[in-house]
Every structure is written in structure tokens, then in C-alpha cells.
Amino acid sequence: MKTVIRTAEDRNRAVEIVSRLNLDKPQEVEIREWKKNRSVAQNSLLWKWLTVIAAELGESKDEVHERYKEKLLVPILRRDDSDFAAMIGSVNAVHASGMKAEALALKKEIVRLTSTTQMNVHQFTEYLNDIELDARNFGIILPHPEDLHNDALGRRS
Predict the structure, then answer these.
(1) CA 146 to chain centre
(2) Is the separation of the CB atoms in 11 and 96 below 8 Å?
(3) First to last CA, the chain
(4) Interatomic CA distance for residues 68 and 64, integer angstroms
(5) Where would I find the H helices in the chain?
(6) Nearest to 76, CA basis, from 48, 132, 114
(7) What is the pTM of this model?
(8) Is the separation of the CB atoms in 108 and 141 below 8 Å?
(9) How many angstroms separate the CA atoms of 76 and 91, rounded?
(10) Distance between CA atoms of 39 and 152, rounded to whole angstroms?
(11) Which positions of the chain have pLDDT values less than 50?
């Protein structure tokens, strides 16, 4: 069970739940600062843009999505998440040991499993800005449905 505690009432309810835990088996409770993940508007704008880029390049939006995950998303998560960076470092060590095919397979699987759901709003904004810049390099001007674009980048309409 996950819950976000915002009020004293929420906290009291969490304490009540913890006090009723069955202690016959060990239990795990994790408390950490809540950070808002990417927004629905950001995700909608991403898929709109991927569809446009795919059409312009003659590819599927899934192919474009996988390429951007490898090129842009993985570096953001590597920079900001020490566990993710350690995983990438392990793949690099496998490659450096001479197991290049194995490292490539691991890299492809990491890219496949990497998701924007792992990003916070700030990271996703950076990702969208990077995609827009890359699209411009191909001469692709992406649409900006104003409400969606402003919401996705955290701007007030």
C-alpha cells in the first residue's frame, strides 16, 4: 500500500495502519519525501510529438520512442539517479571486460525497460525540451497545442 501524507489526518491514519500490522511476519514500511512524477499533460505531449516525428522520418512512433529513450532519457536518469548510474556502470564494465555482445544485449534491455514513469516533472520537462531540439535538427517543427504544451512544461496559460 502506498499513500501520500499531506495532512495531520493522513499522518494519523498511517500511524493507525502501522499500529495494526501483524507482527507474526516481518513488515517493511518506507517513508520518503514525495516527489510528483511526470504529468499526464507531459505524457500526452510526448506521444503527440513522437507521432509527428515518426511520420516525418518514416518510422513508427515506438521506434522513435526507443531511440529517444536511449539517446536522451537514459542520460538524464544516469545523471540524476545513483542506482541507475551504477547499473549503467556495470554494463560498461561488462563491455570493457571484452563481453561486447553481452553488454549490447544488456544495454538494449535497459533501454527497453527504462520509462518516463521514472522521471519527475522537472526531468520530463528537460526530456521534452531535448526532443524538441533534436527534432529541429531534422528540420521538424513540432506542434504546440498551447494548453497541453504550457501544462507539460509547467507554464501558466
Answers:
(1) 23
(2) no
(3) 36
(4) 6
(5) 8-19, 40-57, 61-68, 74-80, 82-96, 100-113, 121-137, 146-152
(6) 114
(7) 0.70
(8) no
(9) 17
(10) 7
(11) none
Q: How far apart are CA 137 and CA 53, in angstroms?
A: 11
pLDDT (tens digit, 9 = 90+) per residue, 115-147?
A: 998 888 899 999 999 999 999 999 999 998 765
Supply the DSSP symbol for 116.
Answer: G
AA letter at 77: L
Q: For the chain, how big is the Rg over CA atoms in Å?
A: 20
How far is it, in rounded angstroms, from Cα 35 to Cα 56? 35
Q: Residue 74: what pLDDT?
A: 96
Average pLDDT score, the chain: 89
Return the C-alpha cell found at 91.
Answer: 554494463
What pLDDT score does 35 carry?
60
Rounded distance, CA 126 to CA 94, Å? 30
**Within 13 Å and on the Cβ side, how many CA atoms surround 130?**
17
